[in-house]
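ok so for the tutorial part 2 we go from a plain amino acid sequence to predicted structure tokens. step 1 is just haveing the sequence, like this:
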Amino acid sequence: MHLFTPSIPLRDHHQPPDTLPTACALINPHLPNSSFPFKPLAGVGVAFFLLVALRKHLRDSDFFLKRQEPDLRLLLDLVALGTIADIVPLQGVNRTLTKVGLALMNSSPRPGIFSLQKVTGTREITSGTVGFQLAPRLNAAGRLEDAALGVDLLLMNDVDAAMDLAGLLDGFNKQRQKIEKETFEQAVAHLEESGKTPMSHTIVLADERWHPGVIGIVASRLVERYHRPSVLVAMDGEQGKGSARSIPGFHLYRALQACEYLLSGYGGHEFAAGLSIASTDFVSFVKAFDAYAQKVLSEDDFKPLLYFDEEVFFDEISLELVRELELMQPFGAGNPEPVFVAKRVRALGAETLKEQHLRWKACQNGVVLPCIAFGMAPRINELQEEFDMLFTPSLNEWRGKVSLQLRIKDIRPCET
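step 2 — the prediction. this is what the tokens look like for a chain of 416 residues:
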């Protein structure tokens, strides 16, 4: 069961390594001598401001006296796409770039983005549709085939050719989802056979059947399910490539530093990392990684927390409130959708949708509001008695009518 607790700020992770590479120039807002006023830029944001600086230099050098000066604002759709996909905090400059870029995508999408909209059936492009619909299809080519295909799509000017390539990427994404599902089931089977959770502090697994392009996603799903730092390694003969995901309180990069004598290479940050390892060192790595976790993690760290902004009553929720909350968009990492708790509610007319989701009407003190809970069909029996709900209020548009709908994040028995 999850615990609900008030929100805490997200910490940034884009830190340079202790030893910097030898180069003519290093561009990173986190460098000690950097005077850039906003640190948590995505890589695409760094590239954009490099172009801004280059344009200024060329302008000052009279380069554009006989040439047309490029309008870099027309690139902000790509900046928004990369910023959302990189899961950096949507605050400050990131939020500004993303908001303008999303507006550009919706008003005059380039052929590649337009084709992805058509393939996914997306009407309005938001940070959510970028993160869960568009970006996964662009990334699917890199995970299974050639990452250049996603770049090719974004650079295309011909809509028909873009539609063909978007269809190909959509096929790769479906293939990726199938492989991901199989890998997750195999990982869970490994754990159930070995009994490694929840007794161990970590999950570290390897298999020669696994594709290195999906193990990071599967590691994230294992963290969601077991709330343990998780490492999956795709073995290929004597060498393996691994992806790791973590929980609050466990710094992955430091953990890998502690085990670096067993690794061929590694890199990453607090919550996500990659590594390479010889098959002969894997068993030793499993023990060393878990031993490090035993030193730094306590029992409280294994209790998953879901954060909320405020407790509310149903009679405080209105269409006007939701419209006011929408002014804080775009939502994403560092600027999440507002999440609320309503206590002691009852479910009326609960039913399953497509054998995966739940829909019901929630009643609190005589006020009734419709609810949708994606992926929660197996929990329908938890709606028999009074319960507390974690939710985001939203607007549901159907046949020209706009109504309130609560999107459920989680439920729990009422506190006594």
